[in-house]
């Protein structure tokens, strides 16, 4: 299975936030959308970073409640790893595990076409393993 298959099922909507928005606004956005991260983009849609729950918690630990008044640029992860639609689930799962991050923007032809999370990838891997186990049960029962 590939990243394209995940996007076909879950959709291609990308939640973004501007770098000058406050951390409090980012918290509100993540809570309203029930997501773990938003891609930080400039006015032209270029990726500047990712603001995740983990980034927000780290900022709160460092700055206390004052972190909520800081801009997203000051707390975001600026080194963003991306993937492409043709990447396999095993490839992106390995990349996410090694890098210890949970969200990957999906890029095609220089533009962002979606975002996948570790939850998206794990869900599809579990479905594949369950399907393989059922096929083996059927094969054994037929033998």
Which tags fit this structure?
143 residues; alpha+beta; CBS-domain; 3-stranded mixed beta sheet; two-stranded antiparallel sheet; 5 helices; 46% helix; 18% strand; elongated
Question: What would you note in describing this structure?
Answer:
- With 143 residues, the chain is α+β, with helices and mostly antiparallel strands.
- The protein has one domain: CBS-domain (Roll), CATH 3.10.580.10.
- It contains five helices and five strands; from the N terminus they run H-E-H-E-E-H-H-E-E-H.
- The strands form two sheets. The chain has a three-stranded mixed β-sheet with strand order 1-2-3. It has a two-stranded antiparallel sheet with strand order 4-5.
- Helix 4 packs across helix 5.
- The radius of gyration is 18 Å and the shape is elongated.
- The two termini are 28 Å apart.
- The mean pLDDT is 94.
Q: Which CATH class is shown?
A: Alpha Beta
Q: In percent terms, what proportion of residues is strand? A: 15-25%
Using the CA coordinates, give the radius of gyration.
Answer: 18 Å
Number of domains: 1
User: Span from first to last CA?
Assistant: 28 Å
CATH evolutionary superfamily: CBS-domain
How many E strands? 5
The sequence of SSEs as H and E is HEHEEHHEEH
What structural class results from the helix and strand content? Answer: alpha+beta
**Which fold does the CATH topology refer to?**
CBS-domain
Unreliable stretches (pLDDT < 50, length at least 5) are none
Q: What does the largest sheet look like?
A: 3 strands, mixed
Order of strands, main sheet, comes to: 1-2-3
- The CATH architecture name reads Roll
**What is the mean predicted local confidence, pLDDT?**
94
Overall spatial form? elongated
The residue fraction in helices comes out at: 40-55%
User: How large is the count of helical segments?
Assistant: 5
């Amino acid at each position: 299975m590939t990243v394209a298959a995940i996007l076909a099922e879950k959709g291609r909507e990308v939640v973004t936030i501007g770098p000058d928005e406050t951390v409090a606004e980012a918290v509100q956005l993540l809570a309203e959308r029930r997501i773990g991260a938003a891609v930080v983009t400039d006015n032209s849609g270029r990726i500047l970073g990712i603001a995740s729950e983990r980034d927000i918690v780290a900022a709160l630990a460092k700055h206390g409640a004052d972190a909520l008044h800081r801009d997203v640029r000051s707390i975001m992860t600026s080194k963003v790893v991306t993937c492409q639609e043709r990447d396999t689930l095993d490839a992106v799962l390995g990349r996410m595990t090694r890098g210890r991050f949970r969200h990957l923007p999906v890029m095609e032809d220089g533009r962002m076409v979606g975002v996948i999370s570790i939850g998206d990838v794990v869900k599809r891997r579990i479905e594949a393993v369950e399907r393989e186990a059922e096929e083996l049960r059927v094969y054994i029962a037929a033998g």
